[in-house]
Amino acid sequence: MDLLRFITAGSVDDGKSTLIGRLLYDSKSIMIDQLAAIEKQSKNKEQGEIDLALLTDGLRAEREQGITIDVAYKYFSTPKRKFIIADAPGHIQYTRNMVTGASTADLAIILIDARNGVVEQTRRHSIITSLLNIPHVVVAINKMDLVDYSQDVYNNIVIDYAEVAKSLGLKDVTYIPISAAFGDNIVEKSPKMSWFEGSSLLQFLESVEVEKDINLTNPRFPVQYVIRPQTDDLHDYRGYAGKVISGIYRKGDAITVLPSGQTSTIRAIEHNGKEVDEVFAPQSAILHLEDDIDISRGDVIAKSDDLPKTTQELDVLLCWMDNKPLVTGNKYLLQINSRVVRSVVKEIEYKLDVNTLQKTDATSAVLNDVIKVKIKTASPVPYDSYSELRENGGAILIDETSHVTVGACMIQ
Amino acid sequence: MSKYSLDYLDHLESEAIHIFREVAGQFERPALLFSGGKDSITLVQLALKAFRPGKFPFPLVHIDTGHNFPEALAYRDELAKKIGEKLIVRNVEDTIKAKHLTEPKGKFASRNALQTYTLLDTIEEFKFDACIGGARRDEEKARAKERIFSVRDEFGQWDPKLQRPELWNTYNGRINKGENVRVFPISNWTELDVWNYIRREKIELPSIYFSHERDVIDHEGQLVAVSDFIKLDPTDKVLRKKVRYRTVGDMTCTAAVESHASNIDDIISEITATKTSERGETRIDDKVSEAAMEDRKKNGYF
Ligand SMILES: Nc1nc2c(ncn2[C@@H]2O[C@H](COP(=O)(O)OP(=O)(O)OP(=O)(O)O)[C@@H](O)[C@H]2O)c(=O)[nH]1
Ligand SMILES: [Mg+2]
Fold it and tell me: Domains in chain B, ordered, with CATH?
């Protein structure tokens, strides 16, 4: 069985948590005791119905305020597929938590309240979806019950959003009108919207093809840890432990270690304690080389006929995630997979205006800004362009004094 | 399906191995918190895959409440011996004496909360900078919110409103002096995933996971084992039942389920069909309040 990771995004109160509750409820993935717990809490509310958002709003502060603060991860499966859901907060203040949830997603469901249409936060989350290069997007036009299940309302929002999708270059966008609260077009097709010809949300989630999203053509293997038992019988054992983040490695392949540029050949591959002839993404493995060369954590073993770029000057689209502003000249640690280097933000080229999606001049950035910057690193970084190979094109910036993660870098 | 597609269990396994190796690469003094339950047993299996033929770059650490199932303790000692890794045991009993802590009273007086004191002392004693644990996000709604690398302050406290961003599979383990990181390699596994993995990997488990006969009392619909650690009321009826455990915690706060499942296949069919969650069916301590787990975590609990 395969696995689909998706996130729900969109503005505050558009119904993200309710949608997930509905998916879990209608696919019978909620246990009786969990249902009893939320039923008890929902009774305090006016409607007298169960508030499905309580299933994911797991923090006390969230339940008190009726909003989502941080991502909740939920799990369910159908006979066709296993799902990992990230329920993101819609509130602008918590955008960095949305970015966290979105960074591992194969698909984003962007909710829009049918009464309000596309709003600023819809655009913000769409920008992030496009920056993070999430391969598939579903635009779920929610609360259709509050607009009499009107096809016109739906069509107008589709026209509006298509503009956003076009200017952001979002590919593979699917539109579905739903009512999360009443279950229309969630698991089954709704008789109330017979004008809608597409499939229900769950049918779509079960059938969208994700296998092709894994890159099997550009082999990259960041070394995480060197295994050297140094016992009598394993005296000369030296294995490079890591994960194949993309591509396929075979015994006998000619490899280059970056950034040093040393070359060798794969002598043996271990996977799950057994010698194998090949490993592929996203398997974890241990590689052994013919030659005794100096390799440590953070180096990348690539195939000699397909090398990533190596540089000390990076062009980066950056999501700023710290309360302290980013100012040109600030120094940070840059971590790409297992490699950490010192770096400085040299120049801010522009800032993206969330409403107009235009580039504007800027010399600093504040929480949740999306900016284009030039970063210089103290030592060379092997990388790929994020849009071509997201596994080797994403990096984080870490504040050296607070140790907090302050930026998400999509290397151009 | 192509030759290069992986089953979801392979995805989860590789993700967990990657997390283990990040811990090994980023921290100076990590530890694996081992309870003898199926989740931490799964962690050991994953650590073997991550580091063999090398040694684990961390010891196994068990915080022993003194209320554990004897079967789980025996299993713990045997496992550590079999894999040849270091096992550190620290006892809640000792902390209670040294610190003059007050034992909770009542019928099911649980040391679950006191465990946190011993854990924090042990972290301090060995200067552990990372503690790997087997918590899963599907277990409980506060856990569903936690990062894979979860930073704790010097009091072990979790601040759910101020979690670090965690992007892609890039884990930031940098911390200030005194802080430590709790790491959860099987965050994304469900109970059923763990059982399916145990079956696939043919992992041995403590016998209490399988159906056996036991003296129990019925406490508000939950079956609690009769042991030295719980005080029976005169009205309690001791029943002899065929039971198994879905989770292994303290004898005072873990309930058994009636079951005839004596092998993994039967257990998996039962869990697939069950309508009650793991914690809901087996944990007596989570029923206290809606936010019981969140509060315990804020105070340094796992
Ligand atoms: N009528 C109607 N109400 C809905 C629908 N979906 C959600 N709601 C209501 O909208 C409100 C907000 O829903 P949530 O699911 O909490 O919204 P959210 O998008 O998760 O909000 P944040 O996470 O705080 O950004 C709740 O009162 C829901 O009951 C719907 O389809 N129809
Ligand atoms: Mg929400």
Answer: 8-193+291-298 (3.40.50.620), 205-286 (no CATH)
